[in-house]
Write the structure tokens for this entry.
Amino acid sequence: MEKRKVYMDYAATTPMKKEVLDAMMPYYTELFGNASSIHCFGREVKSALETAREEVAKLINANTSEIYFTAGGTEADNWAIKGYAFANKERGNHIITTKIEHHAVLHTCEYLEKYHGFEVTYLDVDKDGIVDLKQLRESIKDTTILISVMFANNEIGTIQPIKEIAQIAKEKGIAFHTDAVQAVGNVKVDVKELDIDLMAMSSHKIYGPKGVGALYVKKGIKLHPLVHGGAQEKKRRAGTENIAGIVGFGKAAQIARINLDNHIEKLTSLREKLINGVLDKIPYTRLNGHRTNRLPGNANFSFEFIEGEALLLSLDMLGIAGSSGSACTSGSLDPSHVLMAIGLSHEIAHGSLRLSLGDMNTEEDVDYVLDNLPKIVERLRMMSPLYEKVTKGGN
Ligand SMILES: *Cc1c(COP(=O)(O)O)cnc(C)c1O
């Protein structure tokens, strides 16, 4: 029998949809023109570029002219923060962000502190991973120019009160950027309703190709370019466009918009089955992230008396692909900064498992995990002297 393979790491990346690849293919061969050329080869490609831009804009209710393509979510975050900081530094040097951001935001902020004289406040989050709005208000200074708070967390799935945060920023005349890489395509994101100024997105998290993303820049926002060169993207992001990638991103955005309600319903139901099953069947387990206010496909658990890496390897042997935190931190021994920020001890954080669901998952996949995970956890715990102490009924 062929080994069952269950992919539950959609927060790390998603498989490309067939329709997405089909849409992209011609742009690798017959439609190879450079969008900047004035001849027909260029014009064909230019129009595909603009169609993709419309699709991305529609997904988030932006104007088409507010979408700028980048080489991914990381570049979009870098551009938003550095670009805004450099263009507005005469107004102040203070930036507010959170302790649970993706490294694309955190390391960018640290760079601005270290080399460019900016001052950054990193807000705490509560045990569910939610930013304290009172602390946010109190941390605003006369010199604050930018607030950057992620829409939804990639590790624990918690969704932030984005509308309230944007409102606070607006009242104080501060720009608001959000890393919405995990949120777009998974929850409703409407930049007009939420009053967002800058927003980062990534194609490969929504079933599109890797190496493509976009930054939403609200009309009127002052931003320096991050990449200098030619006049592409209205002179704000130079470099010959990755047309095939952008076309794929556009197609993925269109599919995400059309399927959003079904996608949310399906994943929420699978997630609930998974979370309830795991909490039911496995003692000494906690769910990380907000119980309900979380990404439809995100489940993140901490199992006491367990080492996360060992758990991942055992799951992998059964064909189950999960993550022990964010893919970028595996290989380092430090526990995830997000799990530390929600107050977990080192030991508990080390026993964490993120299972992130997506379009290809089925009820059977969840059943397969619920059949196998409890056994694996029990087997690994048997090797822990601490666990033995606890189960022998001592103190
Ligand atoms: C994946 C991810 C990014 C980085 O996007 P890339 O396109 O992989 O560069 C940034 N922020 C969050 C929250 C992510 O999940």
